[in-house]
Task: structure prediction
Amino acid sequence: ARHRGDHGADHTLVVAPDFEMGALQKECRSNHVTPMRAHDLASLLMLTAAKGPVDLDEFRSLFELFDPDEVHKWVEATIKKAQATKRLPLIMVLSALEEIGFSDPDAITTSVVARHMRSTHGTKDFPTNADVKDVIYGLSVLVPHLVRLANEAIILGTSPAKIRLAVLTQLQEVPPEYRLGIDQVLNTKSA
Result:
């Protein structure tokens, strides 16, 4: 809490493998500190990689919790909500990037990808530019050395097929319960 005050921060998050329960909740509430277990942080990171960023207004509500069990329930509810929301599948974005063409490390805009996908699938409203941005943001979390997002510019360091393989390789290091099924979807499609 002192560190938060010294640096003008709004919130304090403490992450640990687990916590000794009892006085912890009282101290956290008194000092406005949110305790989070490492596996819950891992789940949130993978959610961001799989589905895009968590809504910041919703995320702010996390910092009103002062018990790691309540934090865990919040994380689970956030994951369920994100999984129930229609999201653009990663494999569709990679396929669209492949169709548009990749010859060198180059940039393409998210609006071009969204327009291409709407045209290919004969839809008017889905995916939007924001939908594509969310997926690319997630890719930039999983494989930041191969994919970057700068405003609307998607900067690829290699072909979409190699990005798919890099994501699969990266996911092999992640315990299965945190993968959110991304590996299964990517393994069922050939690039």
The first strand starts at residue 12 and ends at 16. The first helix runs from residue 2 to 6. Strands lie at 12-16, 33-37, 106-109, 147-150, 153-156. The CA atoms of residues 147 and 156 lie 5 Å apart.
